[in-house]
Amino acid sequence: MRYELFGRAADRYDWHTPPQHYQHDHAFVLSRLPPPPCRVLDVGCGTGVFLEKAVAAGFDAAGIDAYAEMASLASRRVGTERVRVERMQELTERSAYDAVVSLSWSFNYVSSFREAKDVLDRFFNALRPGGRLILQLAHAPNATGALNEDREPGPDGVTDDVLFLYRFYATPGRRGELRAQYVYGCKSRKELMSEEHRLGAADAYEVASKATNAGFLNVELLDSWRGEPLAGSLNAFLLAKRP
To answer: Are residues 108 and 32 part of one domain?
Structure first.
């Protein structure tokens, strides 16, 4: 499934989901990485906001993304040598990184828990002994279906030029599946588009179990960047270590 919010509308991504939205998440992840200049892989790097912060903090960071449009934007931030177009399902590197991170629910663009286990095996193999894994996961059991609205400046800095509506709900009868509905509009550009994304393996506890089965140790689930154990959050962090 190809999603246009990551494809032809990729250059709008930072308008409707601006980089400052993630500042606390990114600071938390940077604080949990091995000390720089360790080598870090950002899986599903998007427009490269986290990559840029990691490089600025002294990490040897690289990113992959399934969408060429996203990878191109990330390359503008950190250079073409640090970004490549690659699906996480195709990662074959072995013992190459001190940390693998995947943020903003990128991991949940798997089709099933079975595929999630395969991707976790690939992450395990890509890490060096002692390497860290940090995933930001959707947790469908905590989805409420509430409708949310963000209003952001547009390309010319005009207040409330960009409107972004979104809601998340668990698919009835399908364990671990989350539906994400998005509506993006930009008044100055007369743009309007909507998409529904299907997110798989959206049960953080099950993903944690799969991570343990893949060989990871010290698997931990957190409710947010504040570090409390997972409870009511839709947006969980999984932390683990390769032995």
So the answer is: yes
